[in-house]
Automatic annotation (TrEMBL):
Name of the molecule in the record: prephenate dehydrogenase
Assigned EC number: 1.3.1.12
Any one GO BP annotation for this protein: tyrosine biosynthetic process
A GO molecular-function annotation: prephenate dehydrogenase (NAD+) activity
Keywords for the protein's UniProt record, in alphabetical order: Amino-acid biosynthesis, Aromatic amino acid biosynthesis, NAD, Oxidoreductase, Tyrosine biosynthesis
The species this protein was found in: Zavarzinia compransoris
Amino acid sequence: MAETTPPLFRRAALIGIGLIGSSMALAMRRAGLAGEIVCAARSAATRATALRLGLVDAAFAEAAEAVRGADLIVLATPIGAFGAIAAEIGPVVEAGAIVTDVGSVKAMVLRDVGPHLPLNVHLVPGHPVAGTEHSGPESGFAELFENRWCILTPPEDADERAVDKVVALWAAMGAKVERMTAQHHDLVLAITSHVPHLIAYNIVGTASDLEAVTQSEVIKYSAGGFRDFTRIAASDPTMWRDIFLNNKEAVLEMLGRFVEDLTALQRAIRWGEGDTLFDLFTRTRAIRRSIVDAGQETQAPDFGRRAPGE
Ligand SMILES: NC(=O)C1=CN([C@@H]2O[C@H](COP(=O)(O)OP(=O)(O)OC[C@H]3O[C@@H](n4cnc5c(N)ncnc54)[C@H](O)[C@@H]3O)[C@@H](O)[C@H]2O)C=CC1
Ligand SMILES: O=C(O)C(=O)Cc1ccc(O)cc1
């Protein structure tokens, strides 16, 4: 009889089952990574949806109930909730279990989650750099992490076997895994993700506030660059509020540089310095091409709703 290898984890508990939690549930099931997948969701409607979609084997109202007997715990709520969830699960989490997360900011995980966990529990923070502007358990898809980066930011004294298991988890879901310090992660993501989202929120806000331009004109003529900004600016308000509040220093640093560079462009336009504009636009076009060539574009399957970028 052929021997079957046991799944990587006996029981995985997803705390929060929105876009990322549901995508993980689907990707983990597809790859047979856990014997059992359970979740915690505060609303009865979300628990019912998770069960109806077959995302999980059981759904609990309380995080402390979901983590009992789990050897993998994934925090997949907005990051502002991480500290309270860690305080709730700390007393009941199993010895030897791995606690990871998918939050978009990383230094705050070591700060807010670490102190609540017993010493025999392994904290390995992570961030899949993959997503869409959609939220909730119905927006997930198993392919979300394929060929996308997942950044792990374990503390210096992390248990290497626990780190290896989290690397194996993401690799089996199709991701490319990179390791760095939480501080470096937060600086890099401030410029590649957080400030771009702030700019999108701001430009859509500015356009909608313009008295001389009606709302219907904003919608009607949004085929220009504005349309791409509206996709980003449709991202979840709670999630993004928490990101800015928890990556304050790096975002303010990058925003300072952004404002300086914008001022230089403002001058170039004012003084008719076409070469300055042309040189920058040539450089940025090359960056876009290298992103496309590297295949770093998320294509959500069409579930009868608009795909990202449409
Ligand atoms: N949306 C995206 O594109 C990406 C998000 N992330 C990170 O993943 C995490 C989850 O984001 P999404 O799945 O997009 O959000 P989502 O809004 O789709 O799902 C979050 C879920 O957590 C639940 N929740 C909120 N507070 C809770 C609490 N205290 N206890 C239990 N459940 C709670 C919400 O009801 C919701 O079902 C965030 O920390 C975010 O920074 C990471 C990569 C990409
Ligand atoms: O939809 C998009 O373009 C995104 O940028 C998704 C996203 C949002 C937050 C993250 O931490 C990582 C990826």
